[in-house]
Design brief:
The protein is an alpha/beta fold. It contains 12 helices and 8 strands.
Length: 271
């Protein structure tokens, strides 16, 4: 089959992240080279109707018909999915797993260490094209295949390659991080409501403030601690608020949350 990308992408699992990947890829390069399977047929049928991807009738059909296979199922389901597709995943294909805690060694033990396998950890802002994805390829994945995987996930936001030894930390930081940020946005909005701002307006104020601060930090390339200092004028309002955050252990609480999420990822992987 001829596709705009020159290769076909299969996605096994059409949940929130799987569907986000498919939707972004369809919007960027068209749906003709996308095929998906999910045990919940309704999910794939809905995507086929809305964005025009092809629906496979089994995981094997999805993997057989694609050059790059994304495994987007829950961690506990990954072994059975990989076992189901191992015979149709030839050495010219690439398998990308986005399951938290499932190691390259575990994937290789089922699929074979000679197969090209990449662990990926995207996050939910991929739904709006502002995701952060970290990739960890195994030793059998050639540079050209890594570049191909990078290209796919770059449509979802930023992409970074790190050694697998850091993947649990990545899961705790950027994988779980959006939920921590949503908690902060909610708290900022609640504070605005308490001070008399209508909730819909408070939510916009809070979310845009976080968005703007994040963009400023990325584009300036400076340490956020330095940026914070520029906002906090001597004797001003901001330093009063920062004092409360520091006195309450805000930074330590955030660090603890990321660490606990990373430890949970490690447990999911049997570590």
């Amino acid at each position: 089959m001829t596709s705009k990308r020159g290769f076909v992408i299969g996605c096994i699992g059409a949940g929130s992240m799987g569907s986000a990947i498919l939707k972004r890829l369809a919007a960027e390069g068209g749906p003709d080279d996308l095929i998906a399977f999910d045990i919940d047929e309704g999910k794939v049928d809905a995507l086929a109707s809305s964005i025009g991807i092809r629906a496979a009738q089994s995981a094997q059909e999805c993997a057989r018909g694609s050059e790059l296979v994304i495994v987007a199922v829950k961690p506990g389901t990954v072994p059975s999915v990989c076992a189901a597709i191992k015979d149709v995943v030839t050495r010219n294909k690439v398998v990308v797993s986005i399951a938290a805690g499932v190691t390259l060694r575990e994937l290789e033990s089922i699929l074979g260490s000679e197969k090209a396998i990449v662990r990926a950890m995207p996050n939910t802002p991929a739904l709006v094209g502002e995701g952060m994805t970290v990739l960890s390829p195994n030793n059998s994945t050639e540079d050209a295949s890594i570049s191909r995987v990078e290209g796919i996930f770059s449509s979802l936001g930023r992409v970074m390659i790190l050694p697998e030894t850091l993947m649990d930390a990545v899961t705790g930081l950027s994988g779980s991080g959006p939920a921590f940020v949503f908690t902060f946005i909610s708290a900022l909005a609640d504070a605005g409501v308490k001070l008399g701002i209508p909730r819909d307006k408070a939510l916009v104020l809070a979310a845009q403030t976080v968005l703007g601060a994040a963009k400023y930090a990325l584009e300036s390339g400076e340490d956020p601690a330095l940026l914070r200092g520029r906002v906090a004028s001597p004797g001003g309002t901001t330093i009063e608020g920062i004092h409360v955050l520091e006195r309450s252990g805000f930074a330590g609480i955030v660090m603890d949350a990321v660490e606990q999420a990373a430890l949970k990822s490690k447990k999911l992987g049997g570590g």
